[in-house]
Every structure is written in structure tokens, then in C-alpha cells.
Amino acid sequence: MKKMWSGRFSGESSRLLEEFNASIGFDKNLYREDIAGSKAHAKMLGACGILKQNEAEAIIKGLDGVLAEIESGKFEFKIEDEDIHMSVEKRLSEIIGKELGGRLHTARSRNDQVALDFRLFVLRSGKEIMAELRAFIATLANIAKSHKDTLMPGFTHLQHAQPVSLAYHLMAYAFMFRRDFERFASSVERNNLSPLGSAALAGTPHKIDRDMTARELGFKGATQNAMDSVSDRDFALEILFNISVLMTHASRLCEELILWSSQEFGFVTISDTYSTGSSIMPQKKNPDVAELIRGKTGRVNGNLIALLTVMKGLPLAYNKDMQEDKEGVFDSVHTALTSVHILNEMLKEAKFNEQNMLKVTKKGHLSATDLADYLVREKNVPFRTAHFITGKAVAYAENLGVDLSELTGEQLASIDESLSADAVKFLDLNASKEARSSKGGTANASVQVQIDEIESWLKF
Ligand code: ARG
């Protein structure tokens, strides 16, 4: 079968080469971007007098025909056509004739074509992920609103540390995912430039208007250096990195949901709709969704490392190595979109078990720091001494088999002369939470500021 580039060849390609070389199996994913790019290019060639107006119009009409064929499933993708760029152009030529179809590739190359298609895809995907993130952050803030008074242990080293509210814990994630959103936004902003018209690597002698195609395609402008434009895959690396960080955050939340839904914690009940069963143990209900998201984080990290490694040490300009840039990005984008979406739905339906959370907050003497702070503040005791006295109080409670927060004023006063019965109010777990009203703290008022901040951000 005759190739578009076969002029200088006398022998036919081997089938082995065709199969190895082809990217059509995955870059057919870029058909919309490819056709949009070609339409803009044809329109520009017409406007610049490089094509006659009626020729440009006929090409554009033909391209719309190709698009319709692909969308209706009638289009046949063939290995021999190698990639999406040649598949579309070949079909176009079949529809409008070789003579006219053959004019579309004036003043461009597959090198700038693929750079354009892929960049358009990455920009669109970034915006889609941002929309999913926004919806998810809204859910987090929404749940937080009704859990400012839900006490739970805050952990360090996975050991009970200080009492916090569930709202506070969830808002930590809201801010994390907002940073992710902003990272995608800044990548979209930075990479919003069109490489189309860079041609093979050195620009073109045709009098084209790159700003026009950039505008047509919705870009902020055109890239500056053609050689860089066809060699650059930073936009792809950026989205892979942004997805890795996003999934890393999601994996931390999922890990907590997995722990929290265990018998040992019992903090959360994941709805039946988002749980799975066991093929052998009839009683089981498993948090597969959270586990899968945690697991898929490994796979998106792999995609990032794979492309970094492909790009490392590549000489300028285009090299076929770069055809390896797409599958990992398609996979990571799909993974991020589906993961955030299902995580959002799962969390909306999850039930937090306030009683269980409260029960364990009373384990581990979580208000110990409050007692030490009381001694420093109200009794002028040096912190080190206060730490020691509080330690004695903890040992006293342990001996009785109760939590520090359950001691009475009389018991407290009997432990050390610096302690008086009124200290008991500082041992209260809710009081401990409410005392932390510094900016960014866990007190209800501080958490409300955080919720307000996220909600006003969500509005604009
Ligand atoms: N299929 C190729 C890719 O994905 C398109 C660019 C090919 N350019 C070339 N000069 N062979 O990278």
C-alpha cells in the first residue's frame, strides 16, 4: 500500500514495521483536535491567499464530513495510515479529491500538527479535571459545615494527639485539593499557546498567519520559537505531575477512609452503592473504590516517570521517541477524571459515625496539652514542670482506668499543689478544641472562616 511519504522509496514497508510504527491505535483519541487544527489551518491558508477561498471552504467542508464519519462510527481506522493525522488527511482526499486534499498540508508538518493536537487535548483535559475538583471541594466544604461539633482524635504518628473536629479534618483536604486545582489552572495558563505553523522545525517560507490560527483555536497566542514548539512536551509532563500530586492527595484521603471504615475505627460507613462484597465471605463489605484510587496513584506516578525518561537527553527537534508521550497521558487523565468523580459521589453518601468518633476521642488523654498550658498560663509554672505535672495526672488517670478528661476537680487537686479543682474545665475535650481558635485552628469559629474562604472561592 502506497504511503503519503513514499516518493523517495522504491520498496514497500513491511507489515511488521507498519504495526510497530503506527500510533493510530491510540492517537485516534485526538481526532477532534486534529480536525479542529486542520480546519483552522485551511481557513488561515485561505485568508492569506495561499489557498483560493473556495478551495479552503471545500477542505473545511470535507473535514466536517470526516468528523461526522468518525463520530457516527463509520470511519475505518487502518494501521497502514499510521496515525490520526494521515488517516484524516487520506479520508479527506478520498472525499474531496487528491488534488485539493493534497493542498491542506501546505506550510505545516506532522510535527507541529501532533504538538498542536496533543496540547489541545491536554488543555481540555486540565479544564475537565478542574471541574471535577471544584465539585469535589464543594462536597468537602458541605460535609464540613454540619460537622463542626463532631469531635474526633487528631493524630500524629497515627497515635491520638489532640481533639479536632471532623469538619477541620475534612477542610484540610479541601485546601489540599484547591492547591491541586490551582496547579492545573496555572499549567493551562502557561501552555495556552499554539505551536501550529512551526512546520517541521524551522518555520516555513509561506506567508502564513500563526496568530490567526492561534485565535481560531482559542489560544492566548502563538509560541515564539518553532524548534522549541515541536520539541516541547512540558505541557504533558506538567499535567502528569499535577495528576500525580492530585492522586497522592486522593490516596491519603482514601487510606483514611479505608482505616476509618474498619471495625477498629468505625468512624465512617461507606454506602452499599460504593462498597463491594466478597465471593467467599458472605459478611464482607469492602472499600474497593478507596483502595483502587490508592492503587491507581502508583500507575499515574509510573506514567510521569515514563515520560520524563522518554524526554531525558532527547536532542532537538522532533524524534519518534516522542510518539511514546500519549498513552500515559490518556491513561492518567482518564484515571484522574474517574477517580475524583467517584470519590466525590462516594463521600456524598458516606455516613460519619459521630458516637464512635467521640468514644475514641476519650481515649489517650487528648486534653493533656491543655492541662499543661493551663499550668503555664494561670499558675505561672515553667512549661517543663507543667509537662511533668500533667504526666503525673495522666498516670493517675491511667491507674483509675479512666481518661484524663473524666477526672473530677477533687481528684485533680489531689495530684499536685499547683493543680486546683477549677482546672477541670480545661480537660473537657470540646473545650480543648474550642481553645484552638488561632487562625487555621480547629475551633468552630476558625473552621467557619476556612469554610467561608472555600465557599467564596467556589463562587467565582
Ligand atoms: N505519530 C507521530 C507522533 O505521535 C506524529 C508525528 C510524526 N512525525 C514524524 N515526523 N514522523 O509523534
UniProtKB/TrEMBL annotation:
Limits of the Fumarate lyase N-terminal domain: 7-302
One GO biological process term: L-arginine biosynthetic process via ornithine
Pfam family, one: ASL_C2
Recorded catalytic activity of this chain's protein: 2-(N(omega)-L-arginino)succinate = fumarate + L-arginine
A GO molecular function held by the record: argininosuccinate lyase activity
EC number(s) reported in the record: 4.3.2.1
Origin superkingdom: Bacteria
Enzyme class: lyase
GO annotation, cellular component aspect: cytosol
Location relative to the cell: Cytoplasm
Metabolic or biological pathway, per its Swiss-Prot or TrEMBL entry: Amino-acid biosynthesis; L-arginine biosynthesis; L-arginine from L-ornithine and carbamoyl phosphate: step 3/3
Family, as annotated: Belongs to the lyase 1 family. Argininosuccinate lyase subfamily.
Protein name as catalogued: Argininosuccinate lyase
Organism this protein belongs to: Campylobacter californiensis
